[in-house]
């Protein structure tokens, strides 16, 4: 880093469950470090590290009710609160590194919660979540959001291949198990990505709707990050 006041390029990698965010962000960190850059990585939600993260685990295990029983505005507060508890850690990473890569961030809250509503209710919730995350909780805005786009059918298949996770003993949580819901989340993600200039879409599937190689996806994301970082 050039000086003590420089702030890292903040990159958020988004996508529905099973889209490969964890694999891609880990590989991005390794490859960017090989470029000689200092790189930190955070994954949200932080289920085991924050009070709100623990509550999110309860929510995803159905302990507060089914998806349609918990109003999305209330669910949004849990996810925003998890990031608020992590804010000082995030800001410290941004002061100490060239690039900070996030596996899910505020865009995930926008897409997942507003997908449960439609019309003006959806528009209002999108604005409200953005206000809470970035104005009330004062979380920094990413320089870049990368949406790894994948179909809900492939999402369900890839979620079933995941190993044990620290917040659930189920094969799929209440969001992952609902392919109709995930298709709605994907729709909102794509709407957001096509209307905001700091968003880029990278497809996980080829023209035959088969999975692209991990390395090919990573090459594409890496090129976008390098371009944005050099421009900052």
What is the topology?
Layout: E1 9-14, H1 21-34, E2 39-43, H2 51-60, H3 72-85, H4 87-96, E3 99-103, H5 106-114, H6 119-136, E4 144-149, H7 152-159, H8 179-195, E5 199-203, H9 214-231
Notable characteristics:
alpha/beta; Rossmann fold; 9 helices
Describe the structure.
- By secondary structure, the chain is α/β, with parallel strands linked by helices.
- The chain has one domain: Rossmann fold.
- 51% of the residues lie in helices and 12% in strands.
- It has nine helices and five strands; from the N terminus they run E-H-E-H-H-H-E-H-H-E-H-H-E-H.
- Strands 2-3-1-4-5 form a five-stranded parallel beta sheet, sandwiched between helices.
- Helix 3 runs parallel beside helix 6, helix 5 runs antiparallel to helix 6 and helix 7 packs across helix 8.
- The longest helix has 18 residues.
- 38% of the residues are buried.
- The mean pLDDT is 91.
The number of strands is: 5
Q: In CATH terms, what is the fold-level topology?
A: Rossmann fold
Give the second-level CATH assignment, the architecture: 3-Layer(aba) Sandwich
CATH class reads: Alpha Beta
Q: Can you write the helix and strand succession as a string? A: EHEHHHEHHEHHEH
Question: Care to give the gist of this entry?
Answer:
With 232 residues, this protein is of the alpha/beta class. 51% of the residues lie in helices and 12% in strands. It is built from nine helices and five strands.
């Amino acid at each position: 880093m050039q000086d003590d006041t420089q702030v890292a390029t903040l990159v958020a990698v988004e996508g529905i469950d099973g889209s490969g965010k964890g694999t891609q962000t880990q590989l991005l960190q390794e490859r960017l470090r090989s470029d000689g850059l200092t790189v930190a990585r955070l994954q949200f939600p932080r289920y085991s590290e924050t009070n709100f993260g623990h509550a999110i685990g309860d929510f995803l295990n159905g302990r507060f009710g089914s998806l349609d029983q918990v109003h999305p505005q209330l669910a949004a507060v849990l996810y925003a609160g998890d990031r608020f508890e992590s804010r000082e850690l995030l800001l410290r990473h941004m002061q100490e590194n060239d690039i900070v890569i996030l596996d899910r961030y505020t865009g995930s809250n926008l897409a997942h919660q507003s997908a449960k509503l439609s019309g003006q209710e959806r528009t209002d919730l999108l604005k409200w979540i953005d206000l809470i995350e970035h104005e009330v909780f004062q979380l920094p805005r990413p320089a870049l959001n990368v949406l790894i786009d994948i179909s809900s059918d492939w999402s369900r298949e890839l979620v079933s291949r995941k190993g044990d996770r620290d917040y659930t003993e189920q094969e799929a949580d209440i969001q992952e198990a609902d392919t109709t819901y995930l298709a709605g989340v994907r729709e909102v993600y794509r709407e957001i990505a096509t209307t905001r200039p700091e968003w880029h879409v990278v497809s996980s599937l080829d023209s035959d709707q088969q999975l692209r190689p991990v390395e090919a996806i990573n090459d594409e994301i890496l090129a976008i990050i390098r371009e944005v970082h050099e421009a900052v």
